[in-house]
Amino acid sequence: xxxxxxxxxxxxxxxxxxxxxxxxxxxxxxxxxxxxxxxxxxxxxxxxxxxxxxxxxxxxxxxxxxxxxxxxxxxxxxxxxxxxxxxxxxxxxxxxxxxxxxxxxxxxxxxxxxxxxxxxxxxxxxxxxxxxxxxxxxxxxxxxxxxxxxxx
Length: 152
Prior knowledge:
Layout: H1 7-21, E1 34-39, E2 45-51, E3 59-69, E4 74-81, E5 84-85, E6 95-97, E7 101-110, E8 120-129, E9 132-140, E10 145-150
Parallel strand pairs: 1-10
Antiparallel strand pairs: 1-2, 2-8, 3-7, 3-9, 4-5, 4-6, 4-8, 9-10
């Protein structure tokens, strides 16, 4: 494939074309969720998400992926919701040891009721030993995943 002499111009044109299509798309049933990852000492990450009030009462699914896992890798996921410890639903995977390759942890939960118009705050501490944080996402009841922004 021939290289374009102006790769930045191509990228800008693609972005503008996408922006002209987005307003014509139907709105999602629930507003997007904002998550921000913050590196902490070692390879660990803290992820903070603010869930729109419309997400209360819906099932949620947080997923974190890691690369370079091997025979002495240990990873743990600890979460709080609105400042209280969060117990993930059955079937969630909140810890692993000695798994090879690209691995993931996840937490399924439901955001309970709160005062009208109140956003929920999810905080996830990912404690990582001998692996690298790759990404995380938060999905609300099939509404699509909110990707985490921040430095991996």
